Amino acid sequence: MIDPLAALRRLAEHGVRFLIIGGQAGLARGSSLVTNDLDVCYERSPENLERLATALRSMDARLRGVDEDVPFILDARTLRNGDSFTFDTEFGAVDVLATPSGTRGYDDLAAGASTMDVGGFDVDVASLDDLIRMKRAAGRPKDLYAVEVLVALRDASR
Fold first, then answer.
1. At 74, is the pLDDT very low, low, confident or very high (cuts 50, 70, 90)?
2. What domains can be seen in the chain, in order of their start residue?
3. Is 96 strand, coil or helix?
4. pTM for the complete prediction?
């Protein structure tokens, strides 16, 4: 089970610059589609990579689908050398992406994002247009289905 509010709160407490993308962002925007993880796009400055690594370690983050005996050091250097990571944490599945499909990364998405209250604290959430763009670029059947729902939400809000 995912506890997205706890994971978001932990990221916020550590001062991580991020925004919500994926299914949780869709839920925040009014979608009814269920998701079993939290996807965030993170800003890649050296300071933010340090904060992100610290926050993830505090959540007992472990690479999803990788044997425990495979060496992995969760630090800013590792995050800088990668782009997208899928973790199991004490709060459930948390995926951190620097450059989500169809985007140029954090600054690209932050330009259209808005700040929303989720569970009593403010978090930046990707726009419906950007969620649609990312889902189309990912192109998996479940993403293309989500596009239909997100387009309907966008059209209804206009």
1. very high
2. 4-150 (3.30.460.40)
3. strand
4. 0.95
